[in-house]
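pls design
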């Protein structure tokens, strides 16, 4: 009965909020958006029911046809291609990444990209979207302004919320977290380590909206590993020409940290001739280069915990984001913390890192009070 009453209460609040700004509740689609340097995600719901989208993730890249491309080379005459479709025609496109190190890098390109994200939820342009968008920890006012400006014409109402907090919200329904932590609520006692492409964002989540002191962000993440990998390959195999896309794909398929080896023998072409090269040592060195920064951030936030919450937080150190998929990283962080005296440290990796932030944003969007919504501008 209490649960039913709480559900009605939330629905009544949303309806009242919509009425306050002159919009019928039935016309509003709530969305959660994760604008990622490498991959972006959008999920939505209407009247409390999740939308069944054909596609909810997209590589954060925009491709513009190069001048002089012959008719028929591209499968369509579109003026712009997105995501994996853009990658597949990368020889014939100028690829633009709208985000860099977790932030909007090119406002105009990002506007084109966010309009494309909207089309995944609202292909015919008939819906009214109100959404919560994630931002890297401690994003400056100017960085947040850039995000808002790219969503003009995409969202009618919006809020910007730190991504690690949204990840904690999204974890509430994650099967891997529930198996590892029992009934622990990740929004009450956890330390989120969100390893994206551009930044690694860390956040203490202790039952309330995180303050600046609860958050740390640094630009050592997936792209940093890509750079280390590229440099290592260039030194050892100077005649091998790999594109940025190829480097990222190599990392995503074969990456691992020291102590958790994987086979990384790959067939490549050097001067037109096939060779099988072993990238294992270079991959390990590149991935291990990020570990000290993660450990430093975790220990810094743990030092800010009070004695009443420190044990609970240490037992819920959650690694998410694309970087959490590096083989052995989650286990290595736990081992090194325990070796340094954090005796009850436990690290957990969710089962679906890609959608955590967006799903957390949707949960927040469904419960935002009318006066909290902002108009993109």
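designed seq:
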């Amino acid at each position: 009965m209490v649960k039913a009453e709480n559900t009605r209460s939330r629905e009544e609040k949303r309806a009242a909020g919509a009425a306050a700004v002159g919009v019928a509740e039935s016309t509003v689609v709530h969305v959660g958006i994760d604008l990622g340097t490498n991959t972006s995600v959008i999920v939505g719901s209407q009247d409390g029911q999740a939308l069944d989208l054909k596609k909810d993730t997209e590589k954060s890249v925009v491709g513009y046809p190069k001048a002089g491309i012959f008719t028929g080379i591209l499968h369509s005459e579109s003026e712009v291609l997105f995501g994996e479709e853009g990658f597949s025609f990368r020889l014939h496109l100028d690829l633009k990444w709208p985000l860099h190190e977790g932030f909007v890098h090119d406002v105009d390109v990002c506007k084109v990209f966010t309009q494309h994200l909207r089309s995944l939820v609202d292909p015919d342009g008939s819906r009214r979207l109100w959404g919560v968008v994630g931002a890297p920890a401690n994003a400056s006012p100017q960085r947040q302004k850039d995000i808002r400006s790219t969503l003009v014409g995409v969202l009618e109402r919006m809020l910007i919320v730190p991504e690690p907090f949204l990840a904690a919200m999204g974890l509430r329904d994650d099967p891997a977290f529930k198996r590892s932590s029992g009934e622990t609520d990740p929004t009450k006692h956890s330390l989120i380590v969100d390893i994206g492409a551009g930044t690694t964002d860390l956040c203490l989540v202790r039952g309330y909206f995180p303050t600046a002191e609860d958050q740390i962000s640094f630009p050592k993440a997936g792209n940093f590993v890509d750079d280390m990998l590229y440099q290592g390959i260039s030194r050892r195999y100077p005649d091998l020409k790999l594109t940025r896309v190829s480097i990222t794909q190599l990392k995503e398929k074969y990456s691992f940290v020291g102590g958790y080896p994987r086979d990384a023998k790959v067939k490549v072409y050097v001067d037109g001739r096939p060779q099988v090269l072993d990238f294992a040592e270079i991959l390990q060195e590149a991935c291990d280069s990020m570990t000290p920064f993660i450990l430093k951030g975790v220990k810094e936030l743990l030092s800010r915990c009070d004695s009443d919450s420190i044990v609970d937080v240490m037992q819920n150190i959650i690694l998410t984001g694309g970087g959490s998929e590096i083989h052995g990283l989650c286990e290595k962080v736990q081992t090194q913390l325990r070796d340094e005296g954090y005796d009850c440290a436990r690290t957990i990796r969710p089962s679906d890192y890609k959608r955590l932030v967006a799903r957390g944003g949707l949960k927040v969007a469904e419960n935002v009070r009318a006066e909290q919504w902002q108009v993109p501008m």
